[in-house]
Amino acid sequence: MTTIAPPRRASMRRVSPHAQRRHARVVRLVLAAGLVAVIGMWWASVPAGYATTPADLATTVGELSGMLGGYLVCAQVLLIARVPWFERAVGLDKLVLWHRVLGTTVLFLIVTHVLFMVIGGELLDHSLPWTEFVSMLGNYPDMVTALIGTIAFLAVGLSSARLIRAKLSYEVWYWLHLTTYAAIFLTFLHQLSAGAHFIDNPINRVLWLLLYLGTASAILTWRFLLPTLSAWRHRMRVVAVVPENVGTTSLWFAGAHTDELGVRAGNFLLFRFLSWGHLLTAHPFSVSRVPHDGTMRITVGAVGDHTRRLRDLKKGTLVFVEGPFGHFTADRASRDRILLVAGGAGIGPIRALAEDLLLRGAKPVLIYRAHSADDLALLAELQGMRGLTVVPVVGRRSELGYDPLGPEGLHSIVPNLHEWEAFICGPEGMAARAEDSLRELTMPKRFIHREELSMS
Ligand SMILES: Cc1cc2nc3c(=O)[nH]c(=O)nc-3n(C[C@H](O)[C@H](O)[C@H](O)COP(=O)(O)OP(=O)(O)OC[C@H]3O[C@@H](n4cnc5c(N)ncnc54)[C@H](O)[C@@H]3O)c2cc1C
Ligand 1 centroid vs 401 CA: distance in angstroms? Predict the structure, then answer.
């Protein structure tokens, strides 16, 4: 097996990872401050006898959970509104994770709201739950639309539960998920027309309106308006479709002002191909070559419907790109010795990163893991990059008789890994194994950067 000598020390631009953690903390603080403000709004308008009887107490719990749910659903949507400040501070992948985690809380609060409002009314009117539920629908304004919105929220929430999500195609899940916007609108109406904390409280009404209008504006601006303008400005087209091996294809794009997209090595963009069968969803792909002279490239592994059909795209197909996103970039490196670990579709971002690191004067080592030599896409190109040491590690563990990404395997290729910094990208199991091994070899966690190729 090849053993790599430590490369010459290289000068790298140092960017503190603390800054990013600090920004993420600020975003969390802003969200928490919003939550406190909502509790303040509730407290300022709660009647004196809010907990005098069990009926009052149940109604109070129902109202508070409704307000908190109403706020958190806006926060949840804002997190994925592509607001550049959030994206820079936290990163889209982490924002998607926070969005998902908040979703469970929102569902819980919505169910609590409905249950406790019905229980409160039932205790007050001495009626049966179902009778109370029906009477609420008839006696308060906008309750039928609120019910439809709530059912939509529950459907979206359930479809995101791991067990059900795994059975749905990404497209079905995605389009179901989009009904959330309609659900928010439908449930919003009853908050102002029937919500005890809004009907007679003009300050609360104005604040609530601002929250919802602000959220809607952010979505319209950053998810629709600016991406559409950007797509029009860049008018990106497919200019070449290059099969790299049986399952991997590179797509080359050209367009106007591509250099101004601000794409860095390790970034990903959302691609929507304006072609039949591709139009309905945008897919994330990392660049395998950053924009240069008006062209840019991605390298895609065929894993499902969409990625398998990319090879059939016609030259000239228009593409809507949104982004760039992500923090898997060379400026995160703060050590001189850089190990790159790639497998499968991870080779695209790793190839771009290798080029950037070389430009910065580093001499990275790439461990390229594949089950067979035929799976090694872009190999000749990588081997032609001066200063990059490529170590293809081919074969299944059962064939090799050892795990090349285990601690011993990695150590046999690069000794003293505790002094190195690593960028890992590939299938989840492979990436997790490489990270665990590096941790075992006492590489500190802050020097291990990993890009996930999944966001759902
Ligand atoms: C940040 C990031 C960077 C990526 N970079 C690359 C790359 O450079 N090269 C590459 O080959 N692959 C990359 N991927 C993975 C790629 O996006 C998926 O393989 C592709 O979307 C699968 O679509 P499909 O319909 O062919 O497969 P499916 O079988 O429909 O999906 C397989 C899995 O991919 C994910 N997925 C599917 N559609 C989407 C979507 N529209 N948006 C988000 N996730 C989706 C889901 O987790 C799904 O379970 C990247 C993913 C992410 C999150």
Answer: 31
Whole-model pTM: value is 0.85
CATH code for 330-451?
Answer: 3.40.50.80
Query: Would you say the CATH fold of 330-451 matches that of 235-325?
Result: no
For 235-325, CATH gives: 2.40.30.10
Overall size of the chain counted in residues? 456
Q: What is the DSSP secondary structure assignment for residue 220, as one 8-state letter?
A: I
Give, using CA atoms, the residue closest to atom 28 of ligand 1: 304
> Terminal CA-to-CA distance of the chain, rounded, Å?
38
**Contacts by 222-228 with C-beta closer than 8 Å and gap 24+?**
222/81, 222/82, 222/83, 222/84, 223/81, 223/82, 227/82, 227/320, 227/322, 228/320
| 428-456 pLDDT, tens digit each | 999 999 999 999 999 999 999 999 888 75
CA of 2 to the centre of ligand 1 (A): 33
Report the atom number in ligand 1 closest to the C-alpha of 301.
11
For residue 101, give both structure tokens.
């985690």
Instruction: Return d(Cα 124, Cα 253) in angstroms, integer.
Output: 66
Bridge-based pairing of strands 338-343 and 365-370 is parallel
Q: What is the position in ligand 1's atom list of the atom closest to the CA of 325?
A: 1
| Gap from CA of 347 to ligand 1 centroid (Å) | 14
Taking the CA of residue 451 as reference, the ligand 1 atom at the shortest distance is 1
**Which residue out of 95, 249, 283 has the highest number of ligand 1 atoms within 8 Å of its CB and is therefore the one to mutate?**
283
Q: Per residue in 245-275, pLDDT tens?
A: 989 999 999 999 988 888 999 999 999 999 9
Judged on CB neighbours under 10 Å (0-12, 13-18, 19+), 384 is exposed
Q: Which residues line ligand 1 (CB under 6 A)?
A: 169-170, 268, 281-286, 298-301, 303-307, 345, 348-349, 453-456
Please spell the DSSP secondary structure of 150-194, one letter per residue: HHHHHHHHHHHSHHHHTTS-HHHHHHHHHHHHHHHHHHHHHHHHH
Taking CA atoms, 350 is separated from 99, 346, 382, in Å, by 27, 6, 10
Q: Taking the domains of the chain in order of start, what are their residue ranges?
A: 17-230, 235-325, 330-451
Q: Is 342 in contact with 367 (CB distance < 8 Å)? A: yes
* CA Rg value for the chain: 26
At residue 356, what is the residue type?
Answer: D
Index of the ligand 1 atom closest to the CA of residue 284? 17
- What's the token pair of residue 362? 């580093």
Please name the residue whose Cα sits nearest to atom 42 of ligand 1: 283
pLDDT tens sequence across 67-82: 999 999 999 999 999 8
